Amino acid sequence: MPFGVYILASVIKSAIILLVLLTAVAYTVWLERKVVGHMQNRWGPTRVGPFGLLQPAADGLKFLFKEDLTPPHVYKPLFLAAPLIAVIFALTSIAVIPFGNSIQLFGYDIPLQITDVNTGLLVILGVTSIGVYGVALAGWSSNNKYSLLGGLRASAQMVSYEVSLGLSLVGVLIMAGSFSLRDIVAAQRGHFWGFIPHWNVIPQFIGFFCYIMAAYAETNRIPFDLPEAETELVAGYHTEYSAMKFAMFFMAEYANMITVACLATLLFFGGWNGPIFGPPLLQALLPVVWFAAKVFVFLFLYIWVRGTLPRFRYDQLMAFGWKFLLPLALVNLIGTAIAIAW
Amino acid sequence: MISIHLILFLMFGAVAVAGAVNLLAQTHPINSALSLIAVMAALAGEYLLLGAEFVAAVQVIVYAGAIMVLFVFTIMLLNAGEEERTKGSRVAVLFGVPGMLLGSLLVAWVVLRHSGTGAVAVGAEPGAPKTIGALLFHEFLLPFEITSILILIAIMGAVVLASKPTPAGGVPQKVQGPR
């Protein structure tokens, strides 16, 4: 492929994926309000558009036109940089996520992924591990005790759970023998005994459990949403933020949720593998449809858990992470290694 | 000939040097810590240019993503404020500055003398995760294991230092936590 075509294809793909991602972020918020509303015997948003479907647009406009306050005693450079850091790194990690095989367009073979790196999984782990600075610096630079506590909790929690998160994925890596997300998906093609899909979640169910638990803690979602626990910390690290800067933290949180859901789909649920049938156009589209459907299931699970579980206490959170999840992930790793070496 | 590699190398190098200078020039610890993160990230870029993608990723995950988070965490927890600027110590002027100059001269001399030997094609050195794993667990197994034991000793030392002092000859007191 000529260099110019490559650049053009990358720019177009980036634009499309960013558009889809931001729309998905907006509608995940809508879905959450709607689903949690129904779980609590309420209606959720109903006024703006049919079923409240235009509510995200109204919210976006509201965030744009609200007064953007900067409290007087904050440390200004970092107070302004923190939401940017959070949202930039949350959106970056989507760049290495593949969502289908390649398609043929104008005689060129275009992979359905912004950039294909052979250490894709490590890139995602690295980018998400940088993302913690957004939260930590927001808490510190706000010069507010609730914000500071939120930031401290966030950094301690994310560093602790990153260990379990990394270890829970090593089992999958051993089975695929590669860091490339495409190779990992390719290794999950086919079926066990002809009818059960050959997904990693079946041999790696312990790894999957560890991954989901650690990922919920990494994204600061219930039951691990200690950094912004409203009942104790007002709003945690984003107490002092308003208007678009607050919206950036919101976007970062939901974009991270989507990344986690994509990663769970790719690593444990066979990515875009699924039954392919019908005319050629449908055959080309179906893998992307399967991928999106699986991601949707994980996003729904996030919301379901939020509507069901209460929040952990902070010492319980740390004890769970270090004394239960980490040993479990290690046992899974050793078991997988022995089984593969057998 | 100026290739894209050379431009990127100079760019990452400039970021790394600027970050290192800024680390020393800043008076606020948190700004210094953030400059150090920039240095680490720039170094990861340089590793990537050498074709060592695994080392680059680990550099970001371990140094920038975990160790520096702990630095920032400590600065936040101690609520360390701005530091005063001093005129500099006499020891630094007498020994530090000449020593640094001498060291840089030595490095420059060595590099200039052996300038032809260091050139390696990009990707010629092992950089892929598989090759690194094979090297670590076959050729360098003993140094690898010794390093891990060293780190284990350091961890145990940290735990002992951080734990509550025990009464002489007795068992450690149970820490009273919330029920």
Tally of discrete structural domains of chain A: 1
What strand order characterises the main sheet of chain A? 1-2
How far apart are the termini of chain B? 69 Å
CA radius of gyration of chain B: 22 Å
- What is the tally of helical segments of chain B? 6
Instruction: Assign an overall shape of chain A.
Output: globular
H/E element sequence of chain B: HHHHHH
* Total number of strands of chain A: 4
Helix amount of chain A: 55-70%
Report the sheet with the most strands of chain B, covering strand number, pairing sense and barrel closure: none
The CATH architecture term of the domain at 1-82 in chain B is Up-down Bundle
**Distance linking N and C termini of chain A:** 43 Å
Task: Provide the structure class of chain A.
Answer: mainly alpha
Name of the CATH first level of the domain at 1-82 in chain B? Mainly Alpha
User: CATH superfamily assignment of the domain at 1-82 in chain B?
Assistant: NADH-ubiquinone/plastoquinone oxidoreductase chain 6, subunit NuoJ
Give the low-pLDDT segments of chain A. Answer: none
Number of helices of chain A: 11
Assembly context of the chains: heterodimer
> Could you tell me which chain pair has the largest interface and how many residues each side has?
A-B, 29 and 24 residues
- Structural Rg of chain A: 21 Å
Which secondary structure elements does this structure contain, and how are they paired or packed?
The complex is a heterodimer of chains A (342) and B (179).
Chain A: H1 3-39, H2 55-65, H3 76-92, E1 102-105, E2 108-111, H4 120-141, H5 145-176, H6 181-186, E3 191-192, E4 196-197, H7 205-218, H8 230-233, H9 243-268, H10 280-308, H11 314-341
Antiparallel strand pairs in A: 1-2, 3-4
Helix pairs in contact in A: 1-9, 1-10, 2-9, 3-4, 3-9, 4-5, 5-7, 5-11, 7-9, 7-11, 9-10
Chain B: H1 4-25, H2 29-49, H3 53-78, H4 90-113, H5 129-139, H6 141-162
Which terms would index this structure?
heterodimer; A: 342 residues; mainly alpha; two-stranded antiparallel ribbon; 11 helices; 4% strand; globular; B: 179 residues; Four Helix Bundle (Hemerythrin (Met), subunit A); 70% helix
